[in-house]
Specification:
Blueprint lengths: L4 E2 L7 E4 L8 E4 L2 E4 L9 E3 L8 E4 L2 E6 L14 E3 L25 E6 L5 E2 L3 E6 L5 H15 L7 E3 L1 H9 L4 H5 L4 E3 H6 L8 E4 L10 H15 L4 E8 L7 H11 L7 E5 L6 H19 L5 E4 L4 E6 L10 H14 L3 E4 L9 H7 L3 H20 L10 H5 L5 H8 L8 E5 L9 E5 L5 H10 L4 E6 L12 E5 L2 H6 L6 E2 L1 H5 L4 H17 L5 H4 L15
Parallel strand pairs: 11-14, 11-15, 15-16, 18-19, 18-22, 19-21, 20-21, 22-23, 23-24
Antiparallel strand pairs: 1-2, 2-5, 3-4, 6-7, 7-8, 9-10, 9-17, 12-13
Helix pairs in contact: 1-7, 5-6, 8-16, 9-10
């Protein structure tokens, strides 16, 4: 029988409603009976005892809030009666002992990937177009219109129409009846089979609003981000369009590329418009050079690679009250399995680690790593407060409506995506992953800014959990969507790949769902499964602008 309520940690004084609980209804858990006060919808929480003003509230075993008015046993917490609260954190002692999960079933498993000369292995083979400054966005879009369809990469269409057949028959005198009976429908499968370069998975275009006019820090960061994309294992080569006078200088990009790959030798064409004879000549040259580069990229084929070559980014967006008890911990188990197999995972969104800093600090492999995490977290928090906000403002109206009342509740659930392994490295925004294991990456909580950063630091696949439904993807890192509840999985099946709502219903355990997610990762990495975000062409890209605009 499906449970109606759930207590996550023995020290919690909150209980989660898994089903609708009506006013006056009595529910029992672990020998204790609770009479519901006022009715509680699924995903929301009620207190296990009478609370007075100032009493602390715990969930996931950590402090997540404090009572702002008296709350009766069995009464739901709301934004009116509870305020965000979280424990402080300090360096502490190392707690890096880890009972790794049994990953022996995947010990000899390989995926079919694209091997790069720097020993990275990609799960896809893309060509990139990058504007160094927003002035080049129009040229990028013109090139997109010229290339995408004719090369067979129009993923936004599930069907196309062969108008040329009608034109040809008309020119040869076909009758109206002959024209009406001509088959012109081209399916997505047929379009893919007609690609000019079958071993190139796509041509991607990264437009943005930066590169000049802001601070030098923003432009330098943008160049570092682009370097991360150009050196990304899923990228075969790139064409970069520069205006010539912008803050994001070509030399800065080249320096950042060299930092990441001193022996970089992928095809890379950097073109400056202010040195060209005309816009037409500039665009024409970019297309021709790219076509030559694509012929080289097409020579690369998938070959077997160990799972230790995978780098998986961990993200959540549109979270609900079930995210932290179904989708996120399931992803966490998949992350633990991958780390046990020698792979790398990246946990991002630092505002959504608020309240669990001490646990993560203690899990850092050495004091230097822990101190870097503390430094970045405190600086980020201070910068938010300096503009009149703070981490406590992170939950969106949708989050709150679906049971995430405080940022600490949201954060404690979000952190579950990282699993339980030691933290091997802490990365600031755009810093690349260099160590196998669990990495923490500083990004904002904004979904697309965060996924953009994950790919920029080397994530070859992104796991994205959602409870409300978020149609987000990435240009170079295939993104798998995991639903926290079955209602969403059925309602938005066009964007959801995996349903973790079966954990709530009792059909799956955290472990079994995590194992299923790992299998999806392997299939995606081998090109035998296409994530929904990839199929519909969801290529979201938003650089994080940390400075102010001038």
């Amino acid at each position: 029988m499906r449970k109606k309520i759930l207590k996550i940690h023995p020290n919690d004084n909150l209980i989660v409603a898994l089903d609708d609980l009506s006013n006056g209804e009595k529910v029992e858990l672990e020998g204790e009976t609770y009479q519901i006060q006022g009715g509680i919808p699924p995903k929301h929480k009620f207190v296990t005892q009478d609370l007075e003003v100032g009493d602390k509230i715990y969930m996931y075993g950590v402090l997540v809030g404090k009572a702002m008015q008296p709350i009766k046993k069995g009464e739901a917490i709301t934004v009116s009666n509870v305020k965000h609260d979280a424990d402080t954190f300090s360096l502490g002692k190392r707690k890096t002992e880890w009972n790794a999960p049994d990953a022996s079933s995947w010990k000899d498993t390989q995926f079919m990937g694209y091997h790069r000369e720097n020993e990275q292995v990609g799960v896809a083979n893309y060509w990139l177009f990058i504007p160094l400054v927003f002035c080049e966005n129009r040229n990028i879009n013109v090139i997109r219109e010229a290339l995408v369809k004719d090369l067979g990469y129009d993923r936004n269409r599930t069907v196309d129409f062969d108008i040329q057949s009608l034109i040809s028959k008309h020119q040869h005198g076909a009758s109206s009846d002959e024209l009406l009976t001509t088959e012109i429908v081209i399916t997505a499968e047929e379009m893919q089979s007609k690609r000019t370069f079958p071993n190139v998975d796509g041509v991607k275009f990264l437009t943005h609003e930066g590169g000049c006019g802001g601070t030098r820090e923003d432009s330098n960061t943008l160049c570092a981000l682009f370097a991360g994309y150009i050196t990304h294992p899923n990228v075969a080569g790139a064409t970069v369009l520069s205006l010539g006078c912008q803050n994001a200088e070509v030399k800065i990009l080249q320096e950042e590329i060299k930092k990441r790959d001193p022996n970089f030798n992928k095809p890379l064409y950097i073109m400056e418009q202010q040195k060209s004879k005309s816009e037409r000549e500039f665009i024409s040259a970019a297309i021709k050079k790219t076509f030559v580069g694509l012929t080289e990229a097409n020579k690369i084929e998938r070959k077997p690679a160990p799972l230790s070559k995978l780098v998986v980014g961990l993200e959540c967006g549109g979270s609900d009250g079930f995210s932290g008890i179904s989708a996120n911990p399931s992803v966490g188990h998949a992350a633990d399995l991958l780390v046990a197999l020698g792979g790398s995972v990246i946990l991002s969104e630092f505002p959504e680690l608020n309240g669990v800093e001490q646990e993560l600090t203690d899990r850092c492999i050495d004091d230097a790593t822990a101190e870097k995490f503390i430094s970045i977290m405190r600086a980020y928090s201070a910068s938010a407060e300096a503009v009149g906000s703070g981490f406590d403002a992170n939950p969106s109206p949708g989050n709150i409506k679906d049971g995430l009342i405080t940022d600490a509740i949201k954060s404690a659930g979000a952190a579950k995506k990282g699993g339980t392994s030691p933290v091997v490295d802490v990365l600031d925004y755009t810093e690349p992953v260099t160590k196998n294991g669990l990495n923490l990456l500083c990004t904002p909580g904004n979904d697309v800014e965060s996924t953009t950063g994950l790919a920029g630091s080397g994530a070859s696949i992104i796991l994205f959990t959602t409870g409300l439904g978020t149609p987000t993807g990435n240009p170079v890192a295939p993104t798998l969507k995991i639903s926290s509840n079955s209602v969403l999985a059925k309602r938005m099946e066009d964007i959801i790949d995996i349903n973790a709502g079966t954990v709530i219903s009792g059909e799956d355990s955290i472990n079994s769902k995590g194992e299923e997610i790992l299998d999806f990762i392997i299939r995606t990495a081998s090109g035998t499964y296409t994530p929904k975000a990839v199929a519909i062409g969801q290529d979201d890209f938003i650089p994080w602008k940390r400075g102010v605009s001038l």
